[in-house]
Amino acid sequence: MSPEALAALERYLLAMADDELVIGYRDTEWTGAAPMLEEDLAFSSIGLDEVGHARLFYALLHELTGENIDYRARRPDEYLHARLLELAAAPRYEPAGEHRSNRGWAFAIARQYLYDQFDALRLESVAASTWQPLAQAVDKVRREEKYHLLHTRTWIARLADQAATRERLNAALAECCAYVSGLFEPVAGEPALVAEGVVGAGSDSLQAAWSNVVGGELKRHGITLPLGLPAGQIDGDGGLGGRRGEHGAEWLQQWDDMTSVYRLDPAAIW
Amino acid sequence: MKAACQIDDQQVWERLRAVADPELPALSVVDLGMIRGITLAEGVLTVELMPTFLGCPALDLIRAAIEQALAPCGTVRAAIVRDEAWTSDRISAEGREKLSAAGFAPPSPVPLALMDWPASPCPCCGSLNTRLDSAFGPTPCRAIHYCRACRQPFEQFKAV
């Protein structure tokens, strides 16, 4: 592997790991707050899976660089996840008693569905990576991710079925769409990764494939959205910046929550 | 096993057969097919451990239990396998029987495609007239089904 590809692979693995960690953490916030007990379990399980996948990618990064990544010991601008994933969905109860309802269940489902479709394509694109440890490791991840898609597809169909929930789903998908370009923001040096077969497809072709799959599936439910349009053609800035460590205010809150015990006592185990 | 290790290969496997999955105590890590192999090099006994699910919260407990069970062997290391995926097809015939006896439906053969989900036989009455209620149960490795014949909800070890 060339030095350019090696440096880009570090960023690529970090982006994969951070994506999984950040959405996994957001998923676990539904424990005790989902619309029904089965969904408390489902979102807790999905969150556990995602955090487990993040752990695997951090371990691969360790194998690649020899450096240990402690996710809690990094500054907020050192995380390379897409900004869509840091948005707060579950209700939040502040210690002082204040309650924030945040974006809600339809948003959590819409985001998880759109992200899982993206993740499936990204995993497929590294399944034949010329960097053997990555190709071997993602087989396990793909086996687990199948269940996430099965689950979120079922929920999309369910929410699209009734007028009231359909309206919420549409609004949630539209809000996600303002951020989806961030999923496909390439890490610096991506062309070297593609040229050397470390990843099978660049961000542009992933985005085209994703738009086809997601657009086709949603169309069967009668939903059309401005999916996959380049930033600038949709509201906002397309959720870009994450792959360079640029994030929003909600991320600072999440980072603060995620690292609070560690910052109090780095040796604490919980 | 020679040198630093006080017990032989067979005894190592025997001890591993006594290490239970904390979330499915009826089954050992060997029944579940979680042990890929054991090797002894430079005085360190390495147990190659395949996680059933990457985010399994019991994984660290299982590692510690393995290291404790093999402590008489000297230095023991449970190493997580990353270059090969554990699949539910690795559960042994004995393991599948133990699952059934504990009231869990054993996993179906691993489905090839996403929409390819064979109905799980009900562990209470054996009927195939069942449906998948949720792919996510009380642990990452278990799904919740419902039997229309005997009207019982039941859990299945996920095919993965």
Quick summary:
The complex is a heterodimer of chains A (270) and B (160). By secondary structure, chain A is an all-alpha fold.
The CATH architecture of the largest domain in chain B would be 2-Layer Sandwich
State the CATH superfamily name of the largest domain in chain B.
Fe-S cluster assembly (FSCA)
CATH topology grouping of chain A: Ferritin
Which sequence of strands runs across the widest sheet of chain B? 3-4-5
Gross morphology of chain A is globular
Mean pLDDT of chain B: 90
Helix content of chain A: 55-70%
By oligomeric state, this entry counts as: heterodimer
The ordered H/E elements of chain B are HEEEEHEHEEE
Termini separation of chain A comes to: 39 Å
Number of strands of chain A: 2
- Derived from helix and strand composition plus strand pairing, the structural class of chain B reads alpha+beta
How many discrete structural domains of chain A?
1
CATH class type of the largest domain in chain B: Alpha Beta
Helix amount of chain B: 10-25%
Give me the secondary-structure category of chain A. Answer: mainly alpha
Q: Could you name the ranges of chain A where pLDDT drops below 50 across 5 or more consecutive residues?
A: 230-235
Number of domains of chain B: 2
Strands of the widest sheet of chain A, in order across it, are 1-2
User: DSSP helix count of chain A?
Assistant: 8
The two chains with the largest interface, and their residue counts, are: A-B, 31 and 28 residues
Note down, in words, how this protein is organized.
The complex is a heterodimer of chains A (270) and B (160). By secondary structure, chain A is mainly α. Chain A has a single domain (3-264), classed as Up-down Bundle (Ferritin), CATH 1.20.1260. In chain A, 60% of the residues lie in helices and 1% in strands. Chain A has a two-stranded antiparallel sheet. In chain A, helix 1 runs antiparallel to helix 2 (37-65) and helix 3 packs across helix 5 (163-177). The N and C termini of chain A lie far apart (39 Å). In chain B, 39% of the residues are buried. At the A-B interface, helix 2 and helix 4 of A face loops of B.
